[in-house]
Design goal:
two-stranded antiparallel ribbon, 5 helices, alpha+beta, 6-stranded mixed sheet, globular, about 170 residues
Length: about 170
């Protein structure tokens, strides 16, 4: 009997500063959170997190035109990391949506790594694992769309800019 294995999707809602670390609290300099970097490297995904976080700072200062949902694919397009920096007007925690999708082969390792990232955050609002937990809110991934007979929609995406980035 053939064992069925599904891709895994993980959805998190965390403050945007969870993806960076300030090594010296007396300086306004930050680096990528080492735990997030391990997730990226495990999935072979390139993200300039310094540039991305600087955009989040600008959004907090009122530059709402910088808000977007970005999907960063691995070079083999089997995995992705989704970063959603759309800010709710009542959000005081600067929350972001993070979606991670990968194959069943990397699933166990990625699950452990995302749990570490989630657990180190002072405000871990939502953590969800499943085979379609990201796609339900963000029905963007073309590969996953092909598994459904009818088009999938999400009112959350209405009017939002979406950018797809493929790693080399």
């Amino acid at each position: 009997m053939k064992q069925i294995q599904w891709d895994i999707e993980i959805k998190l809602f965390l403050p945007n500063n969870t993806l960076v670390v300030y090594p010296d609290e007396n300086k306004d300099e930050f680096i990528e959170n080492p735990n997030f970097k391990v997730i990226r490297e495990c999935l072979n995904i390139d993200i300039d997190i310094t540039d991305w976080y600087n955009k989040c700072i600008q959004i907090a200062l009122g530059k709402m035109e910088l808000q977007k949902i970005e999907i960063y694919y691995s070079s083999d397009e089997e995995s992705y990391i989704l970063l959603d920096n759309y800010r709710d007007p009542y959000d005081e925690l600067d929350l972001i949506g993070i979606g991670v999708k990968t194959t069943s082969e990397l699933g166990e390792q990625v699950r452990k790594l995302t749990r570490i990232l989630n657990d180190e955050s002072p405000y871990n609002i939502n953590y969800c694992e499943g085979c379609n937990s990201v796609f339900k809110l963000y029905p963007i991934d073309e590969k996953t769309k092909g598994r459904y007979k009818e088009p999938q929609k999400s009112e959350y995406l209405d009017g939002k800019e979406i950018k797809i980035i493929k790693s080399r």
